[in-house]
Amino acid sequence: MPEQYSPEVIQAAKKICATYVKEYLKPRGYLKISNDKLLKTRVYNRYTKTNHDNEILLNQFYKFLSKNEDLIPANIDTDELEEYFSEKLIGYAYRSLTLVAGEVFEPDRNGLYTCPKSDLDFVNTWEKYSPVTTSQEVSSLWYEFLERMFPDDAERHKVCQWLAHMFQRPRERPSWHLMLTSEAGTGKGFLVGEVLTPLLCDNTHILKSFSQLMGKFSHSLESNMLILLDDTKSKSASTQTELKSVLSEERQYIEKKGFQGEMKRTYARLILASNETRPLRLDGDERRWFAPAKIVHKESKEETQAFITKLYSWLSQDGSLDTIYNWFMSYDLTDFNHKSVEQSNTLKRMIESSESVSKVLALEWANDKKVFTYNELKEEFKQDTDLVKSHIIEAGWIATARNQKAIKSSRAGKAVRLIHPAEMTHKEAVDLYDNPMGYEVNVQNTLPAEDDIVKGLDLSFEKEEEQVEPVPF
Q1: Could you report the per-residue pLDDT of 34-87, keeping only the tens digit for each?
Q2: What is the DSSP string of 310-368?
Q3: DSSP code for 284
Q4: Phi, psi (rounded to 5 degrees) for 292
Q5: Quick one: which of 237, 266, 383, 421 has the most CB atoms within 10 Å?
Q6: Is there a contact between 336 and 328 (Cβ–Cβ < 8 Å)?
Q7: Whole-angstrom Cα distance, residue 127 to residue 46?
Q8: How many CB atoms lie under 10 A from the CB of residue 409?
Q9: What's the CA gap between 34 and 32, in Å, rounded?
């Protein structure tokens, strides 16, 4: 290593380094990131969302230089130049990168986002699609695709408005979302994967379970514009209750690994796609889902796939996605209300089916527990507790009478008053609560199919004991 580099080498090296930073590193999303999760400041790439040691800058530099050898002057000693790069390049490039304090997802805020309160810079992971053409002339195949999926004119218009709103007003999160039921292979996944995902610059996520959406350390809601719930299923009343808040509230509690949880504004829209007739149990006043008519094949699955192949061929042509994006950006939103939607006929039928299912869910849980406290009931069903309670009372459960002395439970560590079948005495209820595996109960009941109305349970117990007047709970 020379003690002092020649002025020609220094001048040439600085010019090459500046070009490397300006034309290679920054356009490719390289930054520096520093936060309380990292032990030291790291090189960060906004597109891969990965952290790297500083040596990555030298590795990428030689990739850059191999494709830009014309930047090296002919009269320069290349050995001396390479030594200069080895010694100085990492430090120079590192100092030239913008420092950010973390990631945010802020639609309609291109590039870096500066927090107005702290003045700290954050990398904005939201991206806006950039069409090359201004044409809105989409192929007739696009219109046919929409008509196949949503044959009803009014419902198709409502769905297209909902989708267009995502592009035109990305910061306005709707409080209602799409529930698409269909036969298998009708094009729901194609719509999301081949059309919406590239137009949203990959700010989409496909989830297979509700736990991936609402579980601990899940931040899908915070960092995406669209989430596809792909045939997700749940019979848990607590899950379905929690989902209501996820659908309607703009601010959600987000907890990332290594960071303290906090309330954050979210923008994600949800599409629930299912091959079931009624994917979720729905309350009578449900307004959080818009469910168009079930999507069916026009002729057959094979004919649908042949059509989608033609559509895909058109989409693969240069400029096709641009025209769909421009079409969405110009779609009329005059009468669109992102906070309210009427119940469709399909949704109303789902609600009618759900009324009996709510009984099934309630009695399945109660029959499995046999005896339980009101707090346990409330913890399981949360906002639906009153509805579930009415089903359980109708089926023959009672609460320990208030004028009866409570019996100490070894499980609870204190005296308890329990909810139990009417045929069971309070002492039997406490014994079963304390020892659920060792108490023999003769249950004469078979729950019906989920769309049948559950009328009650026939419960009998071998031991008879004087009953105390029951009270509502």
Answers
A1: 877 778 899 999 888 899 999 999 999 999 998 998 898 888 888 888 888 888
A2: HHHHHHTSTTHHHHHHHHHHTS--TT--TT--PPPHHHHHHHHHHHHHHHHHHHHHHHH
A3: T
A4: -70, 175
A5: 421
A6: no
A7: 11
A8: 18
A9: 7
Query: Is the model's pLDDT at 332 over the cut of 50?
Result: yes
Q: Which two tokens stand for residue 301?
A: 């699955």
Cα–Cα dist 269/225, whole Å: 6
| Residue 264 or 106, more confident | 106
The DSSP annotation for 145-205 comes to HHHHH--SHHHHHHHHHHHHHHHH-TTS--S-EEEEEB-TTSSHHHIIIIIIHHHTTT-EE
Q: Taking a C-beta distance cutoff of 8 angstroms, is the pair 195, 311 a contact?
A: no
DSSP string, 65-122: HHT-GGGS-TTS-HHHHHHHHHHHHHHHHHHHSPEE--EE--TT--SEEE-TTT--EE
Q: How many residues does the chain have?
A: 473
Residue 277, pLDDT score: 86
């790297």: which residue's tokens?
52
* Residue 310: both structure tokens together: 């033609």
Q: Sheet harboring 269-274: ordered strands across?
A: 204-207, 226-230, 269-274, 177-181, 289-290
Mean pLDDT within 255-266: 75
Measured in Å, how far apart are the chain's first and last C-alpha atoms?
Answer: 85
Helix, strand, coil shares, percent, the chain, to 5: 40, 15, 45
CB 294 within 8 A of CB 152: no
Q: What are phi and psi of 45, to 5 degrees?
A: -115, 125
pTM here is 0.71
List, in order, residues 6 or more apart from 46 with CB less than 8 Å away: 29, 31, 123, 125
Lookup result for tokens 């800058």 = 57
Give the mean pLDDT of the chain.
84
Q: pLDDT digit string (tens) for 274-321?
A: 998 888 878 778 889 999 999 999 999 999 999 999 999 999 999 999
List Cβ neighbours of 403 (8 Å cut-off, separation of 6 or more). Answer: 468, 469
Distances (CA, A) of 164 to 74, 147, 169, 238, 307: 55, 16, 8, 32, 24
Give the DSSP H or E segment for 242.
helix 237-248
DSSP state of 383: G
| 58-83 residues labelled b (16+ CB within 10 A) or e (exposed) | eebbeebbeeeeeeeeeebeeebbbb
- Write the CB contacts of 345 (distance below 8 Å, at least 6 apart in sequence): 293
